[in-house]
DNA sequence: GCGACAG
DNA sequence: ATCTTGTCGC
């Protein structure tokens, strides 16, 4: 049997000496990945239920984001918002200024951002808050990731919540390129299809690229985070897109930047 | 060896 | 992520 070896770690953009952190992170990702669920695993329903009072419907969708200070890159603001799925009104908002020492390394975003979001979620009394989200959207990828475990999976597993990963840029993985995606989308456009499956060289479907708004030619990249299937994730994202970026993430982004500006 | 590399 | 002005258009 042939052992396969991967060792394409780059030098850290921040820390001085070569840091051994990614080695432990690789193991941690591998461990967390064993808990990953990539199929639908929830009790609520999506659509309008006709004989509905017996069925819990999806009502509260969370969105998270982090903004960073231009002066001090270690100062950031993490924000959690919860929106009413039907009206897309923000029904809950919480922000927190934090100091982040964990560096950003492509492929390890979860280690940098998830801890902040977990604290914000814990403040909602672990589910006892009436608006505690039934699902979370993360600006970062799910299984569209070098090892199939992006930040959306990371947060989903640790919070034990259904999550959807939404990337604004393609993470080049498994042979996927922007040129290839553009080509596929253009082909589908002729049939009025606004999305395309992202199938890597391995043959695996890692996510979808979606033209989420008419005002932008640039797609967003949706992938399964945790406990939500890709078709379901696509439906949910589509329903929350007033603009290119789905509203839960967009609101978290806007409000975190606002909060940081006012409190720093 | 050189690029590419979510936020 | 952040640095950055105006501009065209609904």
From the structure above, extract its key features:
archaeoglobus fulgidus dsm 4304 fold; eight-stranded mixed sheet; DNA-binding; 8 strands; disordered N terminus; alpha+beta; 264 residues
Walk me through the topology.
Blueprint: H1 21-33, E1 60-68, E2 75-84, E3 90-99, H2 109-122, E4 135-138, H3 151-159, E5 163-167, H4 178-189, E6 195-199, E7 205-210, E8 220-226, H5 230-239, H6 247-262
Parallel strand pairs: 1-4, 4-5
Antiparallel strand pairs: 1-2, 2-3, 5-8, 6-7, 7-8
Helix pairs in contact: 2-3
The chain binds 2 DNA strands through residues 10, 65-70, 73, 76, 104-107, 109, 112-113, 139-141, 144-146, 150-151, 165, 167-173, 221.
Plain-language structure description:
- This protein is of the alpha+beta class and 264 residues long.
- It has a single domain (57-262), classed as archaeoglobus fulgidus dsm 4304 fold (2-Layer Sandwich), CATH 3.30.2170.10.
- Helix content is 28%, strand content 21%.
- The protein is built from 6 helices and 8 strands; from the N terminus they run αβββαβαβαβββαα.
- An 8-stranded mixed β-sheet has the order 3-2-1-4-5-8-7-6, with helices on both faces.
- Helix 2 (109-122) runs parallel beside helix 3.
- Residues 1-18 have low confidence and may be disordered.
- The protein binds 2 DNA strands through residues 10, 65-70, 73, 76, 104-107, 109, 112-113, 139-141, 144-146, 150-151, 165, 167-173, 221.
């Amino acid at each position: 049997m042939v052992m396969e070896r991967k060792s394409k770690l780059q030098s850290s953009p921040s820390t001085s000496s070569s840091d051994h952190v990614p080695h432990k992170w690789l193991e941690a990702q591998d461990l967390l990945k064993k808990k990953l669920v990539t199929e639908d695993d929830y009790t609520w329903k999506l659509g309008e239920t006709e004989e509905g009072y017996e069925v819990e419907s999806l009502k509260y969708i969370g969105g998270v984001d982090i903004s960073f200070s231009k002066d001090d890159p270690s100062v950031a603001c993490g924000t959690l918002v919860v929106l009413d799925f039907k009206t897309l009104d923000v029904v809950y908002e919480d922000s927190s200024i934090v100091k982040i020492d964990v560096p950003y390394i492509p492929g390890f975003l979860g280690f940098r951002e998830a801890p902040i979001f977990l604290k914000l979620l814990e403040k909602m009394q672990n589910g006892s808050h009436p608006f505690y989200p039934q699902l979370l959207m993360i600006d970062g990828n799910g299984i569209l990731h070098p090892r199939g475990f992006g930040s959306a999976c990371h947060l989903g597993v640790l919070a034990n919540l259904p999550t959807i990963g939404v990337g604004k840029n393609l993470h080049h993985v498994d042979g996927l390129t922007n040129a290839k995606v553009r080509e596929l989308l253009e082909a589908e456009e002729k049939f009025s299809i606004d999305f395309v499956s992202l199938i890597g060289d391995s043959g695996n479907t890692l996510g979808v690229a979606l033209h989420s708004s008419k005002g932008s030619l640039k797609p967003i990249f949706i992938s399964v985070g945790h406990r939500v299937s890709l078709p379901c994730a696509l439906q949910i994202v589509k329903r929350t897109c007033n603009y290119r970026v789905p509203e839960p993430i967009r609101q978290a982004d806007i409000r975190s930047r606002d909060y940081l500006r006012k409190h720093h």
